[in-house]
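cache lookup: miss for this entity combination. No prior model stored, computing from scratch. Input as submitted by user K.M.:
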Amino acid sequence: MPESTIAVAMSGGVDSSVVAGMLRARGENVVGLTMQLWNQRRLPELVPEGGSSGRCCSLDDVYDARHVAQLLGIPYYVVNFEDRFEAQVVKPFIDEYLAGRTPVPCTLCNNFIKFDQFLDMAAGVGADRIATGHYAVISRNEDTGRWEMRRSADRGKDQTYFLFGLKQDQLARTMFPLGAMEKSAVRELARELGIPTAAKPDSQEICFVPNGDYAAFIDAYFKEQRIAPSVTQGELVTTDGQVVGEHSGVHHFTVGQRRGLGVAAGEPLYVISTEPASKRVIIGRNDALLRSTMTVNDVNWISIAAPITPTRTEIKIRNKHHAASATITPTADPSRVQVHFDEPQRAVTPGQGAVFYSGELVLGGGWIG
Amino acid sequence: MLPVMTEVFGNPSSIHHYGQAARAKLDHARRQVASMLHCSDNEIVFTSGGTESDNLAILGIATGGHVVTTAIEHPAVLASADQLSVTRVPVDRSGIVDPEAIRRAIQPDTKLISVMHVNNELGTIQPVEEIGRIAQEAGVAFHSDGVQAAGKVPIDVRAIHADIYAISGHKIYAPKGTGALFIRKGLQLRAQVHGGSHENRYRAGTQNVAGAVALGAAAQWINQRAAAEWPILSSLRDRLEHGILARFADAHVNAAGSLRAPNVTNIRFDGIDSEALLIALDLRGFAVSAGSACSSGAQEPSPVLIAIGLTREQAKSSIRFSLGRSNDAAQVDALIDAVAGCVAHLRKLAPAYA
């Protein structure tokens, strides 16, 4: 092997195909690796008639990735991370819902699979760096000596919300060649490079959950694992303590949800919180969803070292959230911070990520407690 | 092969002289294959490969009855037997099945005993002669999957009392998609591919004449020259094993000490992910495998290695090295160096095993 090799995580989609093509065109030594994360033959009841699209790790995706690798003339392999993916992404995803929180599996996958096991695999096969099709910008600040992360040039594609867990040593070995590009330019480049998947649709939200129906996924997984599904059923209770009905399981509900409550009221009602211990789902009016404070756990600092004084920032509390101004205050526990928003925020949801920005710069992030 | 794809393009089932010319080529190949297996040419049926041969043998004989097989068979055998009532006889660390265990597994409704001649992952040679005798005594048909035996060990289907014996073309340097099946004269066998009366009514469909001719040529080569190659292969294999064991005292040869075919060795490097080692070696130009090529991409460890008592982790730390005609000592030495470099690198990344 030549001294420097880059392992490209190839999903079979346009973005990672373009990454492989760009690096190859630049004359880099490139090896393509596709992570097999989930066996799509499992839970067949979830697959609608005629199959579904937008699911990761299908044979079609591997076929596409291999086809691109063949066209580019790069070595290509499929690596199997199914065991680790189930243990560190799928099971925690389910556990979080059962515990009344709303998880972010893509972040878990980034933290434990793509920038951990995949980096290890890349190093093991002799690649000192990895490249992925993520939309984010990594750069080194020579003054602070830190690796910094910024939002992508294509703001609509920005994936920094899911990347707050990356450590300095991971960033040092990771390349996001698309971070400075618009998606339209990526597709254009795909066509120029002759990549056959140039027009392939973007992948969908949670790769292992077909059609986004996570509750159906959890039910099907329970059935496969022979876990009785009845354990999370309970009462629907209003904020003033009135029992107004029954629900089919806490994992069917997320904070801020309006649909599927099955309760008629004079004004719209929303899920305010879920209480897994009592199996209660608390519902109430929209203004009951507003919060000014939250605790953020397991914080990882990226572009700055952990602050020791209150720090002004803008915080995203879910991917589609518009970052809101807030002050972060350190606590006695260095991995935990207290957040105070300038304006109350709707549906601060336990289990979601909270990512701290300063303009374009990603300061760090953690999990909403 | 090439003339058969151009000048001798007839259909061997046709009456006209073009067909007859093709038929002559096909039957010449049949005699060459028969000679390799030490049987009559009218006992050879051409198929699309080892998998089809195994399927035809098992489903063609044992449908409606019980099959005795082993835990280390190829999926072509196990998946076919799984369609029927089946007993999988376990093996121990030696990777060699105990003939007495086969005898004990026979039931009143047992129609077939199916035991491979040489294991594909370990290279272990099974006691097929003894098992054939047991089958004969019990009045049960005996099938052996000889895909990994052809060209690597002597084969005499009479001596092992085989009723049916499967081989594959590409394991003996013929093209992929070619295979053959020895079917003892007089054996009751139901065809699994239905259509015309080709191949003695055992296998419908116009024959792949070019493939059969290539298979015949490969068999001919084996008949004349393979035996001279075996000591060379086994000395290269030993050189590889000694070289690796000399560098890594904690490496293990799986099924070491068992009677093995000369071309294969399966070596375990505890704490190493065989998937990473395989890719690292491939990027250096050395093509090796982990488990069987037929199940690559699967997350489950090799069932063969599990069957011989390895843990999941041990099985996932094992690499199969297959040597062939084109290999020489210099290549083996280069391979040893590459393995040493890759294993040391991987252990540095996983310091628990450094």
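stored under new cache key. The interface with chain A takes residues 273, 275-277, 279-280, 282-284, 296-299, 342, 345-346, 349 of chain B (CB under 8 Å).
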